[in-house]
Amino acid sequence: MNESTLSTKAAAMATGEDGGFPAQQQQLPGSTDRMEPVPDHGEETWVGTGRLRGMRALITGGDSGIGRAVAIAFAREGADVALSYLPEEQDDAETTAAWVRRASRAVVLCPGDLQNQHTCAEVVEKAVSGLGGMDVLVNNAGVQMARDHGIEDISDERLDRVFKTNLYALFWMTRAALKHLTRGACIINTSSIQAFEPSPALLDYASTKAAINNFTVNLAAEVGQRGIRVNAVAPGPIWTPLQPATQPEDKIKAFGADTPLGRAGQPGEVAGAFVFLASPAEAGYVSGTVLGVTGGKPVF
Ligand code: NAD
Ligand code: MG
User: Which segments carry the region annotation Disordered (predicted)?
Assistant: First the structure.
């Protein structure tokens, strides 16, 4: 099979009344098995060619969705990986870990809530000691909430959770990891189309993603002299547990239909951007950029 097979399958997976997915709801953090249809993380399609041979990567939010697809692709490209996730996501993390082991690579499991800076430091230390070092940090954990609309409906509790998970943890994880990253290493952050085309229902989330773009460019300027590259991937609508866990049902039914390609993407369709940015041979001179994987929505 090849990647066009995944695109064809991705188009066939959206069968909701409005061009999206069947009506469904979950609670955060969401689970993969409860999704209908279960997302495609490239399990049957990604073919590794040794582009990340011998590298060591920590992927936050690595249990499910985009993080799982990145873990599978990284492992098949020859990298050992550590996965960070919330303790209640152990089942999803075990499934991802099994795919990494099937690719004959080592995997380190690092559960913990990254809203706490001590946990961030512990996760980095566990990953570094388990992998014997770190070459790539993928700051991919993130949360949104879109069932209450309007600034008056954004509680302080929600604001704290969204900003701490998406931004504070980004600073804390990066600060802890930089102690271990040397020349040739890189950081890849997960941004969003929401940084460029914000939805009013995601006022808080979209602001964090715009900040992640700014952080990416600015940190790239700071650590460039140390030979460390910093980039971001900005996905469009991707079918992951985050969506049924945070969007209202009517948004799920039409999820992704408003993109130029007319459909949502599958997590496996985003992994290639991360592999490219992580690969020293292909992206050794790429830093401070935000790469869109949006189904055609503009990222400028
Ligand atoms: P997902 O739910 O599969 O992954 C998000 C992960 O974040 C969770 O699995 C969880 O492990 C982790 N996480 C959340 N809160 C955490 C906390 N407090 N501590 C530790 N880990 C925590 O969904 P996904 O869509 O794959 O999300 C991955 C990233 O992609 C997020 O940053 C999200 O904002 C971004 N993104 C997603 C989409 C989309 O349409 N799915 C679009 C643009 C950007
Ligand atoms: Mg998850």
Answer: 1-38
Q: Please, which residues have CB less than 5 A from ligand 2, an ion?
A: 63-64, 89
Distance in Å, CA 28 to ligand 2 centroid? 9
* CB neighbour list of residue 53: distance below 8 Å, 6 or more residues apart: 77, 78, 79
Pull the structure tokens for residue 217: 């460019």
205 is catalytic: yes
H helix runs in the chain, sequence order: 3-13, 65-76, 90-102, 117-131, 156-163, 169-178, 203-223, 242-246, 249-253, 271-278, 280-283
> For the segment 146-192, what is each residue's pLDDT rounded down to a tens digit?
988 789 999 999 999 999 999 999 999 999 999 999 999 999 999 99
**What's the CATH architecture for 3-293?**
3-Layer(aba) Sandwich (3.40)
Digit-coded pLDDT (tens) for 262-272: 999 999 999 99
* Domain ranges within the chain, ordered by starting residue: 3-293
